[in-house]
């Protein structure tokens, strides 16, 4: 029994450390990969051009490498040989990354304009015509818009909780708007539209319509709620927020002090 509990503690400690280090290691890996790619594609050409310019210009060579021995800077061959051994090759990779970042920035400014937006719409339509690509491209586009765009902030007004799919089970959702007028007329109640995200893929889910007075408005950021869904509840939760003695078995009612209903002003 002791061995089992000890092994479980070791396992949990290892997984906790791995979970803490994984984002850092992944970030370092991606940055290293990006630097390697830029160094291979752009950096090598930048370094070659830099060596050529410095080897042909003695005055510029002296400014870049002060204190160089006379035999190394007196001739083109001497300067070229010195550069082969002492040239800082990492500059090429840095210049490559800066160039790509500048190109992405300029493209972003262009696509935010009217002409760029129309052009991007045509590109989306073009890729969605191909049999295989149309099953991948829209989803990749959705993920990119979610991670780097502003759609999530515009569509998800705030985080709420509803008792769904039955009383006593609380589901985390995002308030997106109101229910269709005809549905509200037939129901005889004011309905709001709640997006219930799937876990661990919050980009997919389904929409339910809930009476406004049954919606619990939460003081929670959209990003925190999405993180809670992505991690299947492992990140973002609070243990034993309410003491067990304060909740009687089978009692799922909410007092006015414990819940904040969606206001009529929304």
Descriptive report:
The protein is of the alpha+beta class. Among the domains are: 2-86, no CATH class; 155-237 and 251-261, Roll (SH3 type barrels). Helix content is 55%, strand content 12%. It has 10 helices and 6 strands, in the order ααααααααββαβββαβ. A 6-stranded antiparallel β-sheet has the order 4-3-2-1-5-6.
Topology:
Layout: H1 2-56, H2 58-64, H3 70-73, H4 76-86, H5 90-111, H6 114-127, H7 137-148, H8 151-155, E1 158-163, E2 170-178, H9 181-187, E3 191-197, E4 205-211, E5 216-217, H10 222-230, E6 260-261
Antiparallel strand pairs: 1-2, 1-5, 2-3, 3-4, 5-6
Q: Output the CATH topology of the domain at 155-237 and 251-261.
A: SH3 type barrels
* Global mean pLDDT: 76
- Give the name of the CATH architecture of the domain at 155-237 and 251-261: Roll
Given as residue ranges, the uncertain stretches (5+ residues, pLDDT < 50) are 243-266
- The N- to C-terminal Cα distance equals 56 Å
Number of strands: 6
- Strand order across the largest sheet: 4-3-2-1-5-6
- DSSP summary: helix tally: 10
Determine the strand fraction and express it as a percent band: 5-15%
Share in helix: 40-55%
Give me the strand/helix succession: HHHHHHHHEEHEEEHE
Shape: elongated
